Amino acid sequence: MTSAIGVVMTERIIAGRLQDQRPVGTVLRHPGNVTEPEDLGTVPAGELVEILAGLISSLAASGGAIEAIGVAVPGIVRHGVIEDSPNLPQIKGMRLEQDLSRALVKRGVTAPVHAANDADAIAAGVAATRGQLDKLVRVWTIGNGIGYGRWPYVEGVWEGGHVVVSLDPKERYCGCGGVGHLEGILGYRAMRMRFLDMEPEEVFAHARQGDSRCREFVELWHCALAAATASFIHLSGPGRFFFTGHSVHFLDLPLLRSHLETMVRMSPLQSFSLEVLAPDDETPLIGAGVSAVRARSS
Ligand SMILES: [Zn+2]
Fold first, then answer.
1. Distance 88 CA to ligand 1 centre (A)
2. Residue 140 C-alpha to ligand 1 middle, in angstroms?
3. Ligand 1 mean position to 78 CA, how many Å?
4. Beta-strand relationship, 76-78 and 81-84
5. In angstroms, what is the span from residue 232 Cα to ligand 1's centroid?
6. For 53-86, what is each residue's pLDDT tens digit?
7. Residue 268: pLDDT band with limits 50, 70, 90
8. What are the pLDDT digits (tens) for 118-151?
9. Residue 21 and residue 86: Cα distance in Å, rounded?
10. Integer Cα distance of 146 and 144 in angstroms
11. pLDDT confidence tier of residue 160, bands split at 50, 70 and 90
12. Which of 64, 125, 189, 292 could bond to 70 as cystine, CB 3.0-4.6 Å?
């Protein structure tokens, strides 16, 4: 029987205890008022560590011994360090595992801390909840940014949202400033920059009503996601792809599949499956905990 604590820090912080890969007890949230989330991007990094330590120590005190603590954050996370995090810029360069462990020891919590990318945590959570920890799971998270996650974890950068899917020099809406990136087409912020006169929801609605400029964009949106997915199929093989995130409701799975089928033509690569997951809090929480327990035992 394994006990862990999972924490996810994105627009807000969610933390919970896990028993054998299942959440138990109360899930803690910061800020507590979910209707008016404070912008975590404006909270100083040191304060974030203290907030995390406070949540974790109160969870640790609410039950038996904890084996590992997993913290999932957006960005490039390697060897316990947040190398970059465009949506939480203040944590760039933070030695999260080290800093948080130190803050926890002061509170009497000594379990090891493991930092993971948030999309990787979703992939781990999907694998765990479906009893498929022995299989390859890949996840696209579609929101302001585009995340790519995979289970099992493999050393690397894996910034799938920034793969180049267009050679058009006018495609420069990506948050990172790179030209032709997937996020520059799919990202919510990027769509708002492209259509200054319409919200993304209106673009997709107008496309359904036949507006040609909007229809063209919806095609491009699906082509771009198909192109990035096809690239990963050509690099690491077919298998399962999941799609989730705040903007996943824009995704038309049959349309994506039809584009993907034109891009993946080698028969050993055609056995891929595509599935939409409604975004939830539990999956990344479970994944953060599972990754931490695995990292400890490996
Ligand atoms: Zn980019």
1. 16
2. 15
3. 19
4. antiparallel
5. 17
6. 999 999 999 988 999 999 999 989 999 999 998 8
7. very high
8. 999 999 999 999 999 999 999 999 998 999 999 9
9. 30
10. 7
11. very high
12. 292
For the whole prediction, is pTM greater than 0.85? yes
184 alpha carbon to ligand 1 midpoint, in Å?
7
Instruction: State in Å: Cα 159 to ligand 1 middle.
Output: 9
Residues with CB under 5 A from ligand 1 (ion): 162, 174, 176, 178, 181
Alpha-carbon distance of 113 to 292, in angstroms, equals 7
Distance 252 CA to ligand 1 centre (A): 23
Q: 230 C-alpha vs ligand 1 centroid, how far in Å?
A: 18
